[in-house]
Request: fold
Amino acid sequence: MTASAAVFGVAATEEGDDADCPGVSPHPAVPRPGRTKLWWIEESLGRGRVVAHTCACQMTSYELVRCGGLYQFRRHAFARHDVPPVSWTARCWRREEAYAWWRRLLAGQAR
Reply:
């Protein structure tokens, strides 16, 4: 189990072993019905440091980015007509709230 997977209490790999998956980061759960919809924009708060990330083997991967004392999610998506390749949450949070939202995202309770 990776350090980020241990911190957030999620498994680093899903069912079965996929040869294309490096298995170094958690996979977000399938989005659940009634999940909270996050608002995504194409701008960030500025330069930041990635403090946690999901596995890049899926169509969409996420990063928790710290920009000064605030946190924001960055989403990387394969090119689709309705989703920009890189987008950011419009909302930013302080540390405790950001990690709570990160756990929701990993659990499929937010997207």
